[in-house]
């Protein structure tokens, strides 16, 4: 998926194992890069939270997310 008029970007590091899984997931899709896919997913998450009126993850929610990412092998 090409993003028209791309805004200024910053870099974010993710584990290579996760990057490789994302690269495999976007193969054959409209996404031109893992970065474009990650931006899309994060925008969807933020839009869903805003629609629910959620201010973002609290400490309890953050812990649950980290536990889930750890169980999936994305965090050590």
Keywords:
76 residues, mainly alpha, 57% helix, 0% strand
Polypeptide structure, described:
It is a single chain. With 76 residues, the protein is mostly helical. It has 3 helices and no strands. The protein has helices at residues 16-26, 34-52, 59-71. The relative contact order is 0.13.
Question: What's the short version?
Answer:
The chain is mostly helical.
Note the topology:
Elements: H1 16-26, H2 34-52, H3 59-71
Shape: globular
What is the strand tally? Answer: 0
How would you characterize the largest beta sheet? none
Which ranges are low-confidence, i.e. pLDDT below 50, for 5 or more consecutive residues?
A: none
């Amino acid at each position: 998926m090409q993003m028209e008029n791309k805004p200024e970007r910053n870099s974010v590091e993710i584990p290579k194992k996760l990057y490789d899984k994302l690269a495999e997931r976007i193969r054959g899709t409209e996404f031109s890069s893992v970065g474009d896919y990650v931006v899309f997913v994060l925008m969807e998450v933020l839009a869903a939270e805003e629609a629910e009126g959620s201010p973002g993850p609290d400490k309890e929610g953050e812990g649950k997310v980290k536990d889930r990412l750890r169980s999936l092998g994305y965090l050590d």
